[in-house]
Design brief:
209 residues, mainly alpha, Arc Repressor Mutant, subunit A, two-stranded parallel ribbon, 46% helix
Length: 209
Amino acid sequence: MDSEQDAAAAARREYRASPGYPGEQVVTDPVRIRALAHPVRLELLDYLDDAGSATATECAAAIGASVASCSYHLRTLAKHGYIEQVRQPGREKPWKVVSRSRSQGIDPDLAGSVHAVAATASLEADRQLQRIQSWLRRAPELPPEDVNVSTVLGVGFYATHEEIMEFREELWKLTERFDGRRENPELRPQGAVAARLFAVVNVEPEQRP
């Protein structure tokens, strides 16, 4: 019985979290993960990802929140290691993300880990759904070429856990061809437009063999 429990624990450890891609910030601490479960904080991270760095005042203007609210949430994000202040002269210091690549992993040995990841992922899924629905409502007024190259894709397949992990890595690597273009406009080819990818890969519990 002990050997079976040891094997189960080893399997849980094997799939607890991706070790991360180069430069990726992987968080498994449920307290730190729950710090992301707030729409303003997610909006702030999105804005800082694009802006590179910004003060609380600039963040407030960009996301439509008060300076006081942004200051509070920025400090919370910094407390949990997601952002840091840029050292430069002046009274108001801008903030920047620690990494533009972030992921949250489940650690079965930490109480509340699954719930923390699920709560944060649920909030992010809601935000992305609202963004996609907003885009779909605007589709009739957008340039046809913008709509034609956009894709809403859903596909089902059977794969092992190892194959799903490999698929995740391959999907991530596909985006590496665009590295640097967000921060440096000079790297963008003529005609480049802003695009966003949101993908979910999950095991269907009702269809497990």
